[in-house]
C-alpha cells in the first residue's frame, strides 16, 4: 500500500512543480508589469485593486515589497522559473540527480515558504491589505514546499528523526490543507467586519 501511495505521489509531484511554477511565473510577471506602471505613474491603480481590503497599491508601495532593496517579484520570476524547470526535468525522466541538487532545491522552497509567511504577516497586520497576485504566489508556494519536502524524505535525499520523516513524507496533502486552512482563517478573522459587510 505504501509503495503504491509513493508511486502515485511521484507521478503527481512533477505536476505540482510544473503547474505551480507556471502560475507563480504568471503572477510574478503581472506583478512586475503592475509595479512598472506604479513606478511610472504614482497615481496608477493596479488591476488588482478592487476593494477597500483587496488593494494592491498599498502592498506594492510598502517597504516589504522590496525587502532586499529590489522588487520581490524578481525573486518570484527566478524562483518559479527554476521550479518549472525542475518539474520538466522530472517529466523528461531525469533520475539520480545529486543530493546537493535536492538540498539546494529544498533550501529554495524552504526560503520561499518562510518568505511568504513573513509577507503574509506583514500584509495582514502591518499593511492591512490583500494583493490578489501575491496571494496566487502564496497559494502555489505552499504545495511546492510541502511536496518537495515529502519527495526528498521519500528519496532519502535528506533525513529527519524517523517519526517526523514518516509523517511528513506520507502526509503532504494534509500539511497543505492545514497550511491553507490556517491562512484562510487568519485572513477571515483579520478582515471579518469587511467580509460580513458584503454578505
Offer a concise description of the structure.
This protein is an all-alpha fold and 199 residues long.
How would you describe this structure to a colleague?
This protein has 199 residues and is mostly helical. The protein has a single domain (2-198), classed as de novo design (two linked rop proteins). The protein contains eight helices and no strands. The chain has helices at 2-40, 56-60, 72-91, 99-127, 132-154, 162-170, 172-190, 192-198. Helix 1 (2-40) packs antiparallel against helix 3 (72-91) and helix 5 runs antiparallel to helix 7 (172-190). It is globular, with a radius of gyration of 18 Å. The model has no long low-confidence stretch (mean pLDDT 94).
Topology:
Layout: H1 2-40, H2 56-60, H3 72-91, H4 99-127, H5 132-154, H6 162-170, H7 172-190, H8 192-198
What CATH architecture label applies? Up-down Bundle
Strand content: under 5%
Average pLDDT confidence is 94
Q: Describe the biggest sheet?
A: none
CATH class: Mainly Alpha
Total beta-strand segments: 0
- CATH superfamily, please? VKOR domain
Helix content: over 70%
Radius of gyration: 18 Å
Amino acid at each position: 500500500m505504501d509503495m503504491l501511495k509513493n508511486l502515485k505521489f511521484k507521478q503527481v509531484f512533477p505536476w505540482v512543480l510544473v503547474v505551480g511554477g507556471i502560475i507563480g511565473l504568471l503572477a510574478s510577471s503581472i506583478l512586475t508589469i503592475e509595479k512598472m506602471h506604479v513606478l511610472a505613474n504614482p497615481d496608477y491603480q493596479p488591476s488588482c485593486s478592487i476593494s477597500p481590503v483587496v488593494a494592491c497599491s498599498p502592498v506594492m508601495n510598502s517597504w516589504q515589497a522590496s525587502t532586499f532593496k529590489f522588487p520581490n517579484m524578481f525573486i518570484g520570476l527566478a524562483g518559479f522559473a527554476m521550479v518549472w524547470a525542475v518539474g520538466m526535468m522530472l517529466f523528461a525522466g531525469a533520475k539520480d540527480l545529486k543530493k546537493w541538487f535536492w538540498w539546494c532545491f529544498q533550501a529554495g522552497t524552504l526560503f520561499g515558504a518562510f518568505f511568504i509567511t513573513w509577507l503574509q504577516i506583514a500584509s495582514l497586520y502591518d499593511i492591512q491589505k490583500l494583493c490578489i497576485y501575491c496571494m496566487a504566489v502564496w497559494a502555489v508556494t505552499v504545495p511546492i514546499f510541502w511536496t518537495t519536502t515529502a519527495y526528498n524524505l521519500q528519496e532519502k535525499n535528506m533525513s529527519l528523526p524517523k517519526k517526523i520523516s514518516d509523517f511528513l513524507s506520507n502526509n503532504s496533502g494534509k500539511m497543505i490543507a492545514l497550511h491553507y486552512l490556517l491562512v484562510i482563517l487568519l485572513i477571515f478573522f483579520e478582515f471579518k467586519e469587511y467580509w460580513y459587510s458584503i454578505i
